[in-house]
Structures are given as structure tokens and as C-alpha cells.
Amino acid sequence: MILESELVEKLKSDTNIDSAFQDLVSLYKERLYWHIRNIVKSHDDADDVLQNTFIKVYKNIGNFKGESKLFSWMYRIATNEAITFINKNAKRLQITSEETQTIAINNLASDVYFEGEAIQLKLQKAIAALPQKQQLVFNMKYFEDLKFKEMSDILETSEGALKASYHIAVKKIQDYLTNN
């Protein structure tokens, strides 16, 4: 297994960038896909956003300063790309980003790549009812099991604020599941 620092060095060199980028993609593709999928909900949309994320990483790796982990930097890009995707979709459809999320949740039941049961669909509806930041924090903690420190690096927010957002999100989800 290649060390992150070695990978960054290879990515920034002119000689091994294609090989290093393939290593990067194989290392992070699945984790980034599921992170994006939790935000945009649709498999096809997640694939598009993932591709855009890797294009941005490829074009901007020279700007990576190493102040955070490469993983955190890429997750930040993926998060921003997913949110941008939702907002562009909402603007194109002339609806709010919340309405876009509701449509995505309603389409989950017919998505051949969604293997959830009724309770998972209900959970996704509960998550979609949360404000965007709480959705992100909940998904990153609950589904991806990220530490608050990692989320802090990715979202550039204090750990305390993230813990508060997570606990508020959990309470809202519990209330939604109980009352719907």
C-alpha cells in the first residue's frame, strides 16, 4: 500500500502522474462514491459528480498544500461538487434544493441500484428533511463512520459545532421516524 505522502509526490511529478492518478482513483473511488451518493441519492448522479470530483482533483493537485490529509481535501472537493450539483439541478428545474432532495428521495424506490427496504427509505426521507449541513454531518458520521476531527478538516468547521449538528440531526431523525 502506497503512503499518502508518496502518492502526493507522484501526483505532483511530471513523470508518474497518470500512474499515480490511477492509484489515487482506485484508493478513494468507492469511499468518495458513497459519500457523494449519500448527498445526491441517485447512482447516475453520484457517478457524474464523482467524475467531476476526480477531474477537479487532477487539475488542482498542484495547488494541494498538504495542510490537511489528501483524503480530507478530496472529500471537501467531493462535498462541494455534490452540493453544486444539487443547487444547479434546483436552479435548472426552478425549484429549491430541498425540493430537489425530495424528488431524489422519491426516485430512490425505483432506482435499481437502491437495495433498501421501507425503513431505509423512511430514514432517507428523514435525512432529506434536515438542513443541508446537518445532512452532511449525519451522513458522514452515521454512514461513513468518520471521526469528528476528520469531518472538521473536510467541512472546515469546529468539532464542537459538528457534534452539536450531529446530535440535533439525530434528534430530528428520531422524531421524524416516530411521527411518520
TrEMBL record:
It comes from Gaetbulibacter aquiaggeris. Belongs to the sigma-70 factor family. ECF subfamily. Keywords: Sigma factor, Transcription, Transcription regulation. The keyword Transcription regulation applies. Transmembrane segments: none annotated. Residues 121-173 form the RNA polymerase sigma factor 70 region 4 type domain. Residues 24-91 form the RNA polymerase sigma-70 region domain. This is RNA polymerase sigma factor.
